[in-house]
Amino acid sequence: MRAAIQQETGQDKLEVVDDIEAAGFGPGKVRIRVKATGLCHSDLSAMNGVLPQPAPFVPGHEGAGEVVEVGEGVTNVKAGDRVLVCWLPACGQCPSCKRGQTQLCIAGFLNAGTPNYRRPGGDVFGFAGTGTFAEEVVVDSLCAVPIPDDVPYEIAALIGCGVTTGIGAAINTARVEAGSSVVVIGCGGVGISVIQGARALGAAEIVAVDPVESRREAALRFGATEALAPDALADAKNRLTAGEGFDYVFEVVGKSATARTAYETTRRGGTLCVVGAGAMDDNLQINMFELFFDEKRILPSLYGGGDVLRSYDRVIKLWRAGRIDLEGLITHRVRLEEINEAIDQMRTGVALRTSITI
Q1: Is the dihedral of CA 18, 24, 27, 32 positive or negative?
Q2: How many beta carbons lie within 10 A of that of residue 350, not counting itself?
Q3: Alpha-carbon distance 67 to 147, whole Å?
Q4: What gap in Å lies between CA 304 and CA 107, rounded to an integer?
Q5: 3-class SS at 302?
Q6: Residue of 204, 201, 135, 174 lying closest to 273 (CA atoms)
Q7: Which helix (H) or strand (E) holds 95?
Q8: Positive or negative CA dihedral for 317, 321, 322, 327?
């Protein structure tokens, strides 16, 4: 079968091969025929080494498709079911799951250390334990989440990561209050989803910040009340808040420099929500006095900061009700053999989300 492979960490391009097979099928496993997958910035971060991932590997973790085969003991899905791929399933048994913090379940991360694929030259891993840039993938049954018939595959794929991450950060983690002021730094697919979540919760002011003009224009279409280049943010803070700062500031870039800007843009007693996935050696500096004196809440948000199954269901309901726009997030569509074109679209910032048909 075909798949797109990263041979070594740091390579700019993926290689589309046709001599790979999905591996590991057996008890508790599910084989999925991938129909659509999104390109998330985390895939690029794994390619360049910002996020740790053994190589060679198949990127992609934002996918949806049809169950082809189920292993012994699988009861949550059956052959023929339409599913999205959950890259961080909850085991239900670890301390985090028992506390109700299923998004912190470590079992899903352990899947990343087990090869998902096999080639004549040896084993191949799947990014985040999945690897959806392939015609088929074998995953734990809990990674296969049934979706309603009215949800298209390309929409379901986005719900599997970016949309859930962004909307969840606003709803679950920050819990944006109606009438509040919000800043979103970084307006790709996840940042736009934060904006939609804040709008759904009734935020009065939503300021989008991004260096790419097309993304700023998109942010306005999705609910931002103002869209600015990064160098205009300080002026907006003075103009809109008399220098006090905003109630909620979301960092959706994953850099210490933008996180520091976000901290300085947050009012005293306000909330900084860190959504971007950054590097382990990129340290955010906050001195102990300002940490104490400003009483700003610093809230990291992993995968939307809540139970992902509940979050998926909430997103689908909001989409059906017309409260959020998911179709509009897909600005480009390509086929698997055009995957490097999609990567270039994300790197240059012209795409919010590119849907890849497998």
Answers
A1: negative
A2: 14
A3: 11
A4: 18
A5: coil
A6: 174
A7: helix 95-98
A8: positive
Q: Are 201 and 171 in contact (CB under 8 A)?
A: yes
DSSP 121: T
Residue 107: predicted pLDDT:
80
Q: How confident is the model at residue 282 (pLDDT cuts 50, 70, 90)?
A: very high
The whole-chain average pLDDT of the chain stands at 96
Looking at the chain, how many residues does it have?
A: 358
For residue 157, which amino acid is it? A
Torsion, CA 151, CA 142, CA 335, CA 53, rounded to 10: 140
Instruction: Please say whether the beta carbons of 208 and 187 come within 8 A.
Output: yes
41-86 pLDDT tens trace = 999 999 999 999 999 999 999 999 999 999 999 999 999 999 999 9
Distance separating alpha carbons of residues 193 and 337, to the nearest angstrom: 28
* Token pair in block for residue 43: 């895939």
Question: What residues form DSSP beta bridges with 299?
Answer: 273
Query: 245 is written with which tokens?
Result: 């700062």
CA 264 from centroid of its chain's CA atoms: 25
Residue 55, CA distances (Å) to 6, 11, 34, 78, 278 in order: 7, 11, 21, 31, 19
Higher per-residue confidence, 112 vs 195: 195
Shortest CA distance to 275 belongs to which of 353, 161, 143, 132? 161
